[in-house]
Amino acid sequence: MKKVVVCLLSIMISSVCWAGPQHAVSMHGKPKYPADFEFFDYVNPNAPKGGVLRNASFGSFDTFNPFSIKGNAAPGIGFLFEPLMKMSDDEPFSLYGLIAESIDIAPDRKSVTFTLRPQAHFSDGTPIGADDVVFSFNTLKQKGVPQYRYYYNDVEAAVAEADKKVRFLLKESDNRELPLILGQMPVLSKKYWEGKDFGATTLDIPVGSGPYKIKSFSLNRNVIYEKDPNYWGRDLPANRGFDNFDEVQYDIYRDTTVAAEAFKAGAYDIRIENEAKKWVSAYDGLPHVIKKEVHHGLPSGMQGFVFNTRRPLFQDPKVREALLYAFDFNWTNEHLFYGLYTRTKSFFDNSDLAAKGLPTESEKRLLSPFKGMLDERVFTTPIALPVFDTQNPRPQLLKALSLLKQAGWSIENGVLKNEKGEPFEFEILLDSSGSSAWERITLPFVQNLKKIGIKARIRTMDALQYKNRLDNFDYDMFVMVWGQSLSPGNEQRYFWGSESADQKGSYNFAGVRSKAVDALIEKVVRAQTREELQTATHALDRVLMYGFYVIPHWYSPVTRMVYWDKIDFPKAEPMQGLSIMTGWGR
Prior knowledge:
Blueprint: H1 2-14, E1 24-26, E2 52-58, E3 85-87, E4 94-97, E5 100-105, E6 111-116, H2 130-143, H3 146-151, E7 155-162, E8 165-170, H4 178-183, H5 190-193, E9 212-218, E10 222-227, E11 247-253, H6 256-264, E12 270-272, H7 276-282, E13 289-295, E14 302-307, H8 317-324, H9 329-336, E15 342-343, H10 361-367, H11 377-380, H12 394-406, E16 410-412, E17 415-417, E18 425-431, H13 435-451, E19 455-461, H14 463-471, E20 477-482, H15 491-496, H16 515-525, H17 530-545, E21 550-552, E22 554-555, E23 558-564, E24 567-568, E25 584-585
Parallel strand pairs: 2-11, 18-19, 18-20
Antiparallel strand pairs: 1-4, 3-4, 5-6, 6-8, 7-8, 9-10, 10-11, 12-23, 13-23, 14-20, 14-21, 15-22, 16-17, 24-25
Helix pairs in contact: 8-12, 10-17, 16-17
C-alpha cells in the first residue's frame, strides 16, 4: 500500500509514476518517444554515409582536455566523450539512453540508478563500467571546471552497485532536474585518466567513447576527426541519422572576416553567420552557396556588455543603469544590422520564461521576502529599456547624467568625476577573433559615453589571453552571451549564485552576490511543475534585470546558416535548433 501511495503522490506532482528502469526521462511530463522508437523525428535515418565535413573555428587551442579550467580546448573535442544519456532536440528537456540503457529514479527521488549497456566500450576497447562512471563523477566534481561543482552540489555520493550499475545518492528529493543533469555527465576512462594531472593542459590524444577519434592535428591550425570503426553505439535509436561524415575537420582562423572570405573561396563547408552585414550581402553571386534561416524555440539567453561589479566603479546600481542610456540599440540595428535584430528585454527572452508586464501574485509571494533589498520597480514597473530617437540622443544622455549625479558623479571641464576628483574611466575587453565586427558595434557606444564625460578604452586580446582574463575576472566590461534552455535549473547557480562570484572560471562574470537571487535560483531548481518553473524564472528575471548587471544587446529567433550545396540537412527544424551533425554529403 505504501508504494501505491507514493505513486499517487508522484502522479499528482509530475504526471509520471516511475515503476522501475526507464528508457528515457523528462524534466516535466513524459518523454515523447516510446521504448521501441527507432529514431528521432528530426533526422534522416537513411542519410548517406561518407565524405568530409569541413568547419571553421576561431582563436586557438592548446589542450584536448575540455573539462579543465586551464587552456583552450580543441574545437570538436566533444566528439570523443559520450554522456550517459542523449538529449532529444524536439522536446524541452528529455534524455534517452546512450551509455546507459536505462534510468531508475527512486519513488522518493532520493536516488537515481543507471544501468549501463553491456556493449559500451572506450576507444581502446575496454568496457565502460560503473567504476568509470563513479570516477568521472568524483573527478569532474573535484577537479573539473567549476560548473560541475555547482551541477553536482546536491549529490551525496556515487556508488558502483555492480559492474554495469551505478547509483547516485541525492541530498534532496525536490531537485527535479538533477537526475537529468547526471544523465548528461560525460563518462571518462578511469584506466586512462587515473594518475594523470586532470587539471593540466595536454595534447596527448585521450581515450574516448564517442563516434569519432582524433586522426591528426596541427597546433592552432586544424584538428581532424575520423569515424571510429569500432564505435559501439552507431545503431542505437538515439544515434540514427547522426554522425554521417567519415571525417570532420576544424580549421582555425584568427579573424571572422578572414574566415568569411575563406568560406567564399570554398575552404570549408558551413558557416553560422552572426554578422548581419555579411548575411545580407557577403554571399551574393555564389550560385552553389545556400542561405538558410533555421527557426527554433529556444530562449534568447542574454548577450550584452557585462559590468564587473567586483570593480568599485560598477558597484552602484545607479551607475550601471546610467550606462544603459548610452547604448543606442535603435541606431545600431538600423545602421549596422539592417534591422534584422530584436532588442533583448529579458534573460529568457523569446520564451514563456521571460517576465512580462507586472508581477503576478505568485511572483510577488516569491519576491516579497526581499522587498527591502530590491529595487522597488521589481514590484511596480514592467521591465523596459531606453528607446533612443536616433536623430536626437540628448534626452537619454541627460537621463544618464541625472542618474550619475545621484550616484555622486558630476562633469568638470567635460570630464565626469566623483567626489574625490577621480575621472570615470574603464576598459572594454574584446576577443581578437571577432574584433573588427565588435569594434564597429562598440565604438558608437564609446562615443556616447564620451559625450557624458566618460572615457572608455577598447582593448583587444588574443583568445588565450582573453580566456585567462575572463577566468580570473580581470576586466571592467566585456561582451558575454549566457545561453538559456527551455528548462533552466542548476546552471543558474553557476551563472548568478553568490558562491560562484569568487570561483575562478565560473560564469558569474558580473559578480552577482544577492540573497534574493540565491533564493530565487533555488526556487527555479526545485520547481515541481512547469507552472512553478515559469513563476520562479519570471521572478528571477525581474531581479536580474533591475540589478542592471548587463547592458542588453539583441537576439534573433532564427539561426542563419550558409553552406555549400555539396552537403544537405533534414527538413525538420526542432525546437532546440538544427544540429550540424544530422547533415550529410550529397
